[in-house]
Amino acid sequence: MQKTILCLLLATVYVTCVPLTSEYSEDRVYPRYIQFPDGDGVMHTVDLEAEPDMELLDEIQRDPSNNRYLLYTRRNRRVSQTLTMNNANSITSSNFNANVPTVVVAHGWLGNQYTDINPTIRDAYLGKSDVNVIVLDWRRLALSDYATAARGVPAVGRGLGQFLDFLNRVTGQAFTQMHLVGFSLGAHLVGNAGRELRGRVARVTALDPAGPLWNYSSNRVRPSDGVYVEAIHTDGGYTVGGLGIGTNVADADFYPNGGISQPGCLTNLCNHNRAWEFFAATVTYNHLVGRRCTTSTQITLNTCRGAELRMGNDDLRKSGTGMYRLDTGRRYPF
Predict the structure, then answer these.
(1) For position 39, what pLDDT does the model report?
(2) Which domain of life is it from (predicted)?
(3) Residue 91: which domain range?
């Protein structure tokens, strides 16, 4: 009798705690109405069945370059320079240096150039090395309702890819010197940018890629979008409140603390944001090391014993495959 009760308890723990991987999350069904945060952490009610704004989507499709590209370097750490698609002078007269790496940062839904992810990652990079940091402000679409924004993400991503192709032609910078970093909807956006460039960019880093409307989407981020594609999953819980996709989408998928609930967090919003907070910390310290897992059960039980791979960081020659578990602290640098 005692053994039976123990088995039932273990089964219950497994069912309620197992993290989402490709074996499970494809079947997750979201309700029609969910809560999803904007770039400032304010939660909004989202209707996943809302009719998208087709007029805006048609405009985005016709002109996918309708984005703002804001350049920061060590010569202009706080005040950006605007780079303009098909305007070579905007690039040649700027502080852009083709001899150093370029990092592109893409915010999520309802975000803009001032959203916290942008200065946090910008400052981490510029504090460490001489790089070009380009903040992509795609507010024209991002400020629309979630259903419209999600549908328009592939076109915005293609626009980013076309801009980087233009940058390559004007400056000669190789795609292997480029790293695309995106958060939430922005994670799928940079995936599509890499796809537009036929997977030639050195790295694509997807920070807790958005889950709602993306489970079955062929436009979500995928391993072929870059030479090396990495995803960091921090809010992929079974519950409908999980904001991240919570499934393997990259060459290497990291599940910090199991990928569902993060130390020091009490809300899905906090869990979701941990992805870019972790990433910024790893750019500076390169200190978070994952162990490769063979099953989702190992991720849950923290019994991964495979090869080590450092999560995040700024290494353009990084490589790796599989899924990884690691534990972090509650506060920066985690």
Answers:
(1) 72
(2) Eukaryota
(3) 19-326
